[in-house]
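note to self — DONT lose this again. spent like an hour looking for the file last time. sequence + predicted structure for the chain T wanted, 241 res
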Amino acid sequence: MAWNETTSLTFSARHDDADAAYSEGILDGLESLSLKLEDRFETVPGGITVVVHPNGAWLDFAHPFLPLVRWSSAPAGRRYLVGWAMTGEIHVLGEAALEKRAAGDASFEALKGSAERLYAQLVIAANNGRMPPPWSPSNFRRYLEWAWLVEGSAQHFARQVDLFRPAVIRRLREGARPTFPPARRDATNSAEPSSICSRNTAAVVPASSSSHDSGRAVRAPTSRPRSTSAFGRSRTSGATT
């Protein structure tokens, strides 16, 4: 397949002919998000390339960690694991492939926002030396440990929290009572209710605080917090760092 390239002021995209208009929309959204994140984080990466894959097989072949994460996640959120962030690159699915995965209008909008959510993850990682990329087995394990913080914060900064409401409702109906921090099966899951806690961490920084305070709030600590119910009741933790 021949790749086409579309560029904006800060980003670029590689895609096929069918995703030309969709890729332009991705770049516009990333430019807007980048400007907002500059007010919140000390470091905001530029020069990022978005690779738009026409189908899931191409995406999974390019990123062998992604099928593993999808398989290990709770069913309610698997459809939303449609991209991967690398150093200098974001890989996502094309519009037609996303439409096939969507479970409704809100689901489709959440899927189309994957590039912005993944870029927010890159920004968080750039300001936190403990988080990938770059990816390695040890960094991947650390990501699973703190995915609830990274994923939830990325949804908050990309302004996508409300779009995942149907998935959260499904997760509450089908799964066990959520805990904080979430179990690893839920850690990478966009539908995990416990990730709301990390979204609130970013949201509660007062407007009068330093512009970078909310960015500092999502840096991974050196150890996991005590395990509690996501609804506030403490329980004995079996988690280890």
